Amino acid sequence: WRSVYTRKFTILPFFPDKREAGIKTLEQVRKRGSFTKELSQGSLAWIYFNEGDFGKAYRYNEALFKEYPDNVIIRTLKGLLLTQLKRYTEADEQFAAILQIDPSLSSIYLYQAFTDFDKVDTKYRPRGEAYQGITPEETTAYNEIIPTIEKFLAMEPAPRMKARGYDLWAEILFREGDIKGAQKMTKAALKLDYSLSSARGRQQQLRN
């Protein structure tokens, strides 16, 4: 599956994209293997998650989850998949359960914040309407996410993860019309990870 890491080099002839072949091989191992079945199943769950096939990824991961409910990696992927499937309450339950197992996992607080952010978006813009202002109810809902982001940032996570925390906070402030606050948080995000496209796009908007 290493070709997924060289995806940006696929224009070069010596970097063929063999993702399809890799998936096919893992599918065969899953069906025929004994000791390697669970490993291939877990790999397929993450691969389909990265490919955006969340339904298939969920089915593979759920089979593992039934066998290993206390495995935080499997449970984390379940929470992330439930968020993508817009099953937000169930996703929050999974993240809360992980923090009961190990409260030191800072990334889970970030996943909680993103899940709650998506939940607000889905509630107030169910058809994906373009952002054109904010209601008082939305403001309240967004503000309820900020303490989770603050808790995440206070745990001093890895720089790239920390950048995503600042970026999410910046997006909330931007939507609420706090331009100075959004500029500050966007700058903090880009200082840690300048490749963050959402922060770079917002920076351009804030300049206009």
Specify the helix fraction band. over 70%
**Class from secondary-structure proportions:** mainly alpha
**Total beta strands:** 0
What do the pLDDT scores average to? 84
Main β-sheet, in a few words?
none
State the low-pLDDT regions, or none.
Answer: 1-18
Order of helices and strands: HHHHHHHHHHH
Rg, alpha carbons: 19 Å
* SS strand fraction: under 5%
Describe the protein.
- There is one protein chain.
- With 208 residues, the chain is an all-alpha fold.
- Helix content is 72%, strand content 0%.
- The chain has eleven helices and no strands.
- Helix 1 runs antiparallel to helix 2 and helix 6 runs antiparallel to helix 8.
Write a short abstract of this structure.
Helices cover 72% and strands 0% of the residues. The protein has 208 residues and is mainly alpha-helical. Helix 1 packs antiparallel against helix 2, helix 9 runs antiparallel to helix 10 and helix 10 packs antiparallel against helix 11.
Primary descriptors:
208 residues, mainly alpha, 72% helix
Outline the secondary-structure elements.
Elements: H1 19-32, H2 37-51, H3 54-67, H4 72-84, H5 88-101, H6 106-124, H7 136-143, H8 146-154, H9 159-176, H10 179-192, H11 197-207
Helix pairs in contact: 1-2, 2-3, 3-4, 4-5, 4-6, 5-6, 6-8, 6-9, 8-9, 9-10, 10-11
